[in-house]
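Running this now, will post back.
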Amino acid sequence: MTREDAAQEGSVIKVLLADDQALVRGAMAALLRLEGDIDVAVEVGTGTEAVAAVVERSAADDPIDVCLLDIEMPGLDGIETARELDRLAPEVRSLIVTTFGRPGYVRRALEAGARGFIVKDTPAPELASAIRAVQRGERVVDPALAMESLAGGPNPLTAREREVLGAALDGSSVAVIAATVHLSAGTVRNYLSSAIGKTGTSNRLEAARVAERNGWL
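Update: finished.
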């Protein structure tokens, strides 16, 4: 189907593409524009810009249908962007497309309201098919990641434990972590101790790295 035919039938899918790497974003947009029924209407480099663009287009009665979101972006990351879009524009479908295929990310993304999760090395025809499926209201998850996510079980960390471990990733001291997350040093130690036990590690830095590797942060 040509773009003209799709437009006449009202079946063109308007896509927003959010990725902070301009070359990657441009390459994906160019490939998707070869599809007659997909229009990459907006390209942005941050999650904050993605949310603003979707809200603006919705207000102008020219809504985006599907948002393709990278995980690691400045400001709001892809998962938080999906959460905001689900809150502000629930009619818009979010599809995570990322290099970081960590099992924990899949569960977090779906819990945040994303309709799908695929990796960037997915062939262009499969990416286009995923966009169409998400637009139809279906869920699309990379099969290998789906199996790993199920096998790994739910994220064992609480929100506070995730916050404290995130602040520990750079090797910061307890005092610095406490100042960063606005908690007392004793409370931070308690959260770190609990997280170390849950991750089966021996110190806070190891716990933070295991949590990051599993996509729990």
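The mean pLDDT is 87. More later if anyone needs it.
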